[in-house]
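ok so heres the complex, two chains, lmk if somethin looks off
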Amino acid sequence: MAHNKTEVRKILDAVKAAGRLSLTAPEGKKVCDAYAIPVPKEGVATSAAEAASLAAGMGFPVVLKIVSPEILHKTEAGGVLVGVKSKDEAERGFATIMANAKNYDAKANLLGVQVQQMLSGGQEVIVGAVTDPSFGKLVAFGLGGVLVEVMKDITFRLAPATRDDALSMLDGIAAAEMLKGVRGAEPVDRDALATLIGNVSQLVADFPEISELDLNPVFATAKDAIAADVRIVVDWSPAPARFRPKHDDIVRDMNRIMKPDAVAVIGASSETGKIGNSVMKNLINGGYQGKIYPINPSADEIMGLKAYKSVKDVPKDIDVAVFAIPAKFVAQALIEVGEKKIPGAVLIPSGFAETGNVEGQKELQEIGHKYGVRLMGPNIYGFYYTWKNLCATFCTAYDVKGHAALSSQSGGIGMAIIGFSRSAKMGVSAIVGLGNKSDIDEDDLLTFFEQDDNTSIIAQHCEDLKDGRAFAEVAKRVSKKKPVVVLKAGRTSMGARAASSHTGALAGNDKIYDDVLRQSGVIRAKALRDLLEYARAIPVLPTPKGENVVIITGAGGSGVLLSDACVDNDLKLMAMPADLDAAFRKFIPPFGAAGNPVDITGGEPPKTYQNTIRLGLEDPRIHSLILGYWHTIVTPPMVFAKLVAEVVAEFKAKGIEKPIVASLAGDVEVEEAAEYLFAHGIPAYPYSTEMPVMVLGAKYQWARGAGLIR
Amino acid sequence: MAHNKTEVRKILDAVKAAGRLSLTAPEGKKVCDAYAIPVPKEGVATSAAEAASLAAGMGFPVVLKIVSPEILHKTEAGGVLVGVKSKDEAERGFATIMANAKNYDAKANLLGVQVQQMLSGGQEVIVGAVTDPSFGKLVAFGLGGVLVEVMKDITFRLAPATRDDALSMLDGIAAAEMLKGVRGAEPVDRDALATLIGNVSQLVADFPEISELDLNPVFATAKDAIAADVRIVVDWSPAPARFRPKHDDIVRDMNRIMKPDAVAVIGASSETGKIGNSVMKNLINGGYQGKIYPINPSADEIMGLKAYKSVKDVPKDIDVAVFAIPAKFVAQALIEVGEKKIPGAVLIPSGFAETGNVEGQKELQEIGHKYGVRLMGPNIYGFYYTWKNLCATFCTAYDVKGHAALSSQSGGIGMAIIGFSRSAKMGVSAIVGLGNKSDIDEDDLLTFFEQDDNTSIIAQHCEDLKDGRAFAEVAKRVSKKKPVVVLKAGRTSMGARAASSHTGALAGNDKIYDDVLRQSGVIRAKALRDLLEYARAIPVLPTPKGENVVIITGAGGSGVLLSDACVDNDLKLMAMPADLDAAFRKFIPPFGAAGNPVDITGGEPPKTYQNTIRLGLEDPRIHSLILGYWHTIVTPPMVFAKLVAEVVAEFKAKGIEKPIVASLAGDVEVEEAAEYLFAHGIPAYPYSTEMPVMVLGAKYQWARGAGLIR
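and the predicted structre for the whole thing:
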């Protein structure tokens, strides 16, 4: 559908010239026409015959209205007829209205009768657009009516929305079933509605000055979708587009920062307790193999390394400078970093925006921008990149190599990441603190981790997204390759208030975050622990090849709870084919439960677990397994753990890999078994039937979003 | 409002005599009249004047309809007038209708004109009643209309419903706001609606043969609530009421069973690996101080104790017999138990209903009933009662005394309870396996634990409630004194299917469970781990005296997530009074965040935590504290844990106790700190901002339900 930009520009220019902030109804209608957004057909008839033919052309029923500059109260003048159902009625109606009008005001100038398509029936819906400070233009969709307002059942997508986005909005509301035709009602024309949504989204994307748009209601019927009312609000000074470094520049700089060959520590110190000392210790004791340059104006040597007064005195190239000096000295040192052409500064010091020193932070941003230095922080713990044995932080060291990259906006959450990782022996590629995000933010990290071969999942905690649109665009691309998990704090209005007292950032409407993150293929963690568990389990699990999940359980009780969790996590329990059911039955006691869950019953020997799990891996119709283990003396926890690991290894050798998770019900020995299983590629959890299903559900969510499951 | 039972009985008798299964509309209307359920007023006028006066009496608008046995198609005959708005119109209408009718059929016998109150406007709602196999009669309430059907926004209460129950239903739907008047609409008359709901619930409670009732729609306006349409379905052979032992009998028998002075082990054995051997070992090694009587026909002595061939040979009284023999021998041994007048049998053996042997289980039930022996199981692990050092089970022993009583329907879940308890060092009073629940069920346990001074919380896992109504009634009473937590498995339709394959029990509609459990004051756990965490934390927390929660956090990031969790868990962050804000500010850095959360900022010394927590305990306007700890070298985890415990002890000595929970963000040392805090009365969780708030939220939910918070 070609859009007439010139026409819209003309209308907007006129509105601007008139100094107005909203469009009149006729202007709104013209804008809609230019973007193929259906509005009621209308025309002006100057004769009864013309009224009849116009009406016939647009389809009955129609509304007839007198057109006269002198008659403001048309209804009072008997100048309106609704529900006109035939050509005959239209002809007669024209005559009646003209006569009434003349009768009402003999001096009125009667220009004719407006014939307008009358909308009714179908489903009333709302299509709109808003401008969000972080995400920019968004298109919105919901059902019409008061009840929907009360239920707040509305869904958003970034504008412009693709056709798939628009179609997904029709399924994205709680009342989606209403569009499919309930109680004999006809289903709406999904194509027409999606096209309308798409056109609205393109319109606001093309014209940033359109700040709000409302089509309310839109009558969606089985044959079309027509906006009965249009409201367009404009803002003549929209927020300027944010500066964004080029993709290749980000990749180049971030690679030098995250995987440096030479690190300078500004404020390096020999004195225990100083941050500059902790950073030095972490670098050296962490086993970092690159060059380390301590920078300190009053020392010649620090921890056995030659010290320099300034980075400018260092004879070789430096990739990243870690700042461990008080806030007031940062700006000057940053200028020197810029002059030395170091691409990255890790700004550990606090005392900037988070304490009200917004100006100080702005100064750093300006210096960074001027010299092309990317800034991490300020007000951060630093970062870890394990594959370089790099702990560029004053916190405790961490060195378990793995493939999960984590980041946090808050230092406290960063410490929780370290603690959890160490406790769970979670392998990580990187842990990064983003703090005040004066420059480097979540999308820079995504851009780096996307091409970092040591990273297979990215898990991020954030309180705001300074540039939500940039994040969404990058996440949409990256999540096709690697799972992206986000814990967005300040989800709720109460939480959002705390976020804003903490970072001075305005937390966005959570529903918008929720929808846009989903649109971008991001897995949203509901809780801190969930974020951590996802980061730990998702990279361990192979990608499922299909939707068929089978539960094999020794404890019937676990089977029920695991089934509950499958529904909660949008997993589909396979309807067990008769032959497969029979095959399972061969291995289990006669009173074991049929179907899915496969209930092998308690007290079974290792062989029963072995046989049934083997069958689950063998049969190509099964795509994933959830195991429910019940601790018995016949099959103790470690016996179970080892047999599962063996069967999995056996099939892996044959090229068969399926995601398997396990719930372990038993005495404390199950904790050791869970650890063993996890280390062998089977995420396993003691005393929980929810956690294993939750992580499997997240893997599925990602795989579906990335188009890996048909 | 007096209800006319005689009138309803008469109508139902007539319907039964006619062999019908539903009532006609006039019958339904009469039933409503008898129970003061408002229906449209109506009357027959034989003159125009009478029509006008009838109409005026019921209020305009009214509908007029010809009354004539010969005229079936009233509208066709011109015999219907809707929207009659005045006495004049009514008079004229009467004449018109009579004339039309005469004109239509001159031979028709015209009996007059029916004048009926015309309903419109207000909010359309549905009030109904259903019969649930477990809960019996339930009253239902929801908004009318298709959209509500799609959203499945309906709520249930046990019938009869109290006035409070009925009022709570108006707030119990997602669209509750609609009743309060949205967009200028008038709010509905809540009293009238609650009265109508109450009357419907009383009607179905009084007449068990009414199996279904629908008032759809009911027009709820600012001045009344009137049912426009009534549908009543009857069932002439309703399920008979279940047998229920008397309260005092339950208490007497359960006390002997759970706290026995003498235990017989039927099938006691010296042979390692036998269940009868494990039970003996657990009893003896567990330190049980009562009498133990091994029963075994082919042994004189077992593990140093004199053995008997039958319980009947034991010279003294026995309180409980633990069965450790194969299923086929159970019935005979149970008869002997009955003859010995032992009040309880713990039926560990499997091989009954769960394997399809329903008849065998029925036989046990009949024997138990005949001899007055209460049956636990069959198909269970047994039970623990720590305060008697009693491990009447073949599972691993457990002896950490505490105040949480747990039960599980499934053995696997029982093992998870043992493992979690041991791992978390959770003190318990009892752990009980209920298995097939042939007799003793959740409400028997509730009745016992209610009066058991060693128990302060009851946490139960169940898949079905065989007698949901009995459970709800007991839970409603018990939960006023002690928190009752339930994990109802088979919540979802997929889970419910597995439940039914597992136990042969029909899992009820989950929404009904949800509503009735809430009505009964039960805290519903969403997940196994939640059930366990509730059992561990709730008894540790003092009961809050009010709703004002304050977060004190060292990590701003935790503050945001803790705030999110407060909203999720229905906790109210106190709006900080200016004087209190100023008082907190004295202790924290100038850039610490104002209000609530109190952000003391990272890197603060122990003193800052001390001062702010002390202030939180001191000020009577604050009722609960949530602490967000951030691991730093200035205030290491154990230093924090000890200072909190100290402050809490100091205030306890002064008689001030408030619930405090803590979220610990830091390296692995926080795990030790969490354990220390928990042991000192402060539920604390590492790497989680959700769990501490969730358990505090549950404590609040209980306290509100029990009427302890105004």
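quick notes: The first strand of chain A starts at residue 42 and ends at 45. thats all i got rn
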